[in-house]
Structure formats: structure tokens, C-alpha cells
Design goal:
Layout lengths: L13 E4 L2 E4 L4 E7 L14 H13 L4 E5 L12 H18 L4 E4 L3 H10 L3 E4 L8 H8 L3 E4 L17 H18 L7 E4 L8 H9 L12 E3 L4 H7 L7 H13 L4 E4 L2 H15 L3
Parallel strand pairs: 3-4, 3-10, 4-5, 5-6, 6-7, 7-8, 9-10
Antiparallel strand pairs: 1-2
The chain binds ligand YH5.
């Protein structure tokens, strides 16, 4: 369970994130700090800088291992924003968190300029839902020398949920991540600084998402730690009909399944509850 692939085990249990350590010797918890005004799943309205920082400190207090800061919405149908607007949202928060936290900060962006300025301000990981496919993103990430999370998405946020089609979703997601990992290696990114993510909800039907979760261990052969984001997502609404503000327990269940199927990092909103459940599952299987 959640052991690293043989090719990376032994010397990479701790990932250096711009001078901050992320321990991957056990399942890590990534707390979501959403700075978009449309973040209805996090309670709705736009957060002030102080509110955002307070929320991150609370997640750290609850045991988060890393905080993922995002300023651009990737929801189906969301409009693109400029790099400047994204920077205005994320930079003040990253600067404050770098001072007030000891854990690493990740920047959820696809824009090279945002990657650069966020890492300069203290972010120690790049989380890109486009897997560094924007112009100049690979070279920018390589030069910044921080870990990168490569996520699978079919299509573009605007239209990705219209009619996603796969012949075999597990094979296609695996192949995509393997190709993007190789592109990173070719760009000079250290193999120990690459994470992969199947991208739950990004250009996938409910059936695609369920099939990916059931077969998550199939991604281990790519040779990188696996990060997953399932927290509060519509997979829950579509499966059992819960509204977004009542998805905590189902989100915990999905996190545990992901851990059982090999996930190394879980990206989520509800740190205390999920961390406790994950620790318990790890305790049961530790010696087994
Ligand atoms: C992810 O899976 N997801 S942003 C809809 C929701 C709740 C949450 C309707 N960034 C991922 O979190 N980065 C996002 O309820 C991500 N993996 C990685 N690496 C979407 C999101 C969400 C969407």
C-alpha cells in the first residue's frame, strides 16, 4: 500500500521542495487552498488574504504535509484569467505562508510566469493540471528545479466534460503520464522530482473516474509517486447524490480507497478527518 515503485524506493522517501521536506515514506496530505472567487466547494465567496492564510495555518495545524495554493479555476466552463490576475491572488498568500509555515507550499498553475514568480516567492512544488504542456512550461519548471506534479486531463477545462471518450481510460491515462514524465526527463527535470496524477474529473465521465480509482495501482508502473484529488468532487454527487457541502464522509472513503490502491499523496479540503482515517488504515496494514 502506497509504497513507492522499486525504481524510486530507498533514496527518495523525502522529496526536497525548494528547501522544505515532503516525507513520502508514508501517505502525505496536501491541503487545498483555493483562491478563486468561484470556489463554491470551499464555502463560496472570495477569501481575503488573512482569511486564506488563516485557513492554511489551520490545515497545517491539523497535520497537512503541504499546502496547494491555486488562483485559477479549472472547473468545467470556467473562464481563463490573465497571469497578472492569478499572481495578484496567489503571491501575497504564498509570501505570508512561506514566513508562517514550515511545510512546503505548492502552486497550482499552468502558466510559466506564475510558476516562476510563485517559486521565487516561496512555493516549492509546481502542480500543473496541464502537465507542463503550455509553451515554455517544461523549460521553466526545469530551471526552477522544484518537484512537478503532472496531471492527466482530456481536452480543455472549458469543454472537457462535454463528451469524454476513451477506449481504455486506465491505459490511456497511464500512457499520457508516461509520455509527459519522459518529456520532463528530456527537459532535464530530475526523475526524483516528478509526481503523476490521473486527474479525477478532468475530461472523464463518472464511469471513467470509477474505473481509474479501481485500477489506480496500474499507474505505479510509470515509476513516480501518485497524487490524487477526489475531495468533494462530482464523482460523489453523481454516485450517491450528495450536494457539495455534504461530501465529507464520502470524500474520506474515496481517499482511503485511493491509499489502498497505491496513492502516495492525497489532495483534499478536510485535513483532520482524512488524515486520521488514512493513519488508521496505514496502522492496520503497516506490518502486513
Ligand atoms: C487534482 O485532482 N483538482 S482543481 C470540483 C469540486 C471539488 C474540487 C465540485 N486541481 C486537482 O479540486 N490538481 C484541481 O467539487 C488539481 N489533482 C491535481 N494535481 C478541482 C477541484 C475540485 C473540483
Amino acid at each position: 500500500m502506497a509504497t513507492l515503485p522499486a525504481s524510486t524506493s530507498g533514496n527518495t522517501t523525502v522529496m526536497d521542495c525548494g528547501g522544505r521536506s515532503l516525507n513520502l515514506g508514508r501517505v502525505a496530505v496536501m491541503g487545498i487552498l483555493n483562491l478563486t472567487p468561484d470556489s463554491f466547494s470551499d464555502g463560496g465567496l472570495f477569501m481575503s488574504r488573512d482569511q486564506a492564510v488563516g485557513r492554511a495555518l489551520k490545515m497545517a495545524d491539523e497535520g497537512a504535509d503541504i499546502i496547494d495554493v491555486g488562483g485559477e479555476s479549472t472547473r468545467p466552463g470556467a473562464l481563463a484569467i490573465s497571469a497578472q490576475e492569478e499572481l495578484d491572488r496567489v503571491l501575497p498568500v504564498i509570501e505570508a505562508l512561506r514566513r508562517e509555515l514550515e511545510i512546503p507550499i505548492s502552486i497550482d498553475t499552468s502558466k510559466p510566469r506564475v510558476m516562476h514568480e510563485a517559486v521565487s516567492a516561496g512555493a516549492g512544488m509546481i502542480n500543473d493540471v496541464k502537465a507542463l504542456r503550455e509553451d515554455n512550461a517544461l523549460a521553466t519548471a526545469a530551471a526552477l528545479d522544484v518537484p512537478v506534479c503532472l496531471m492527466h486531463m482530456q481536452g480543455e477545462p472549458r469543454s472537457m466534460q462535454t463528451n469524454p471518450i476513451y477506449e481504455d481510460v486506465v491505459v490511456e491515462v497511464r500512457n499520457f503520464l508516461s509520455i509527459r514524465r519522459q518529456a520532463c526527463l528530456d527537459a532535464g527535470i530530475d526523475e526524483k522530482k516528478i509526481l503523476i496524477d490521473p486527474g479525477f474529473g478532468f475530461g472523464k465521465t463518472l464511469e471513467h473516474n470509477l474505473e481509474l480509482l479501481r485500477n489506480l495501482s496500474g499507474l505505479k508502473s510509470v515509476g513516480a509517486p501518485v497524487l490524487v484529488g477526489l475531495s468533494r468532487k462530482s464523482i460523489i454527487g453523481k454516485s450517491i447524490g450528495l450536494p457539495v457541502d455534504k461530501r465529507l464522509h464520502a470524500s474520506v472513503a474515496l481517499a482511503i480507497l485511493a491509499v489502498r490502491n497505491g496513492a502516495n499523496i492525497i489532495r483534499l479540503h478536510d485535513v483532520a478527518a482524512t488524515r486520521e482515517a488514512v493513519r488508521m488504515v496505514e496502522a492496520v496494514y503497516r506490518a502486513a
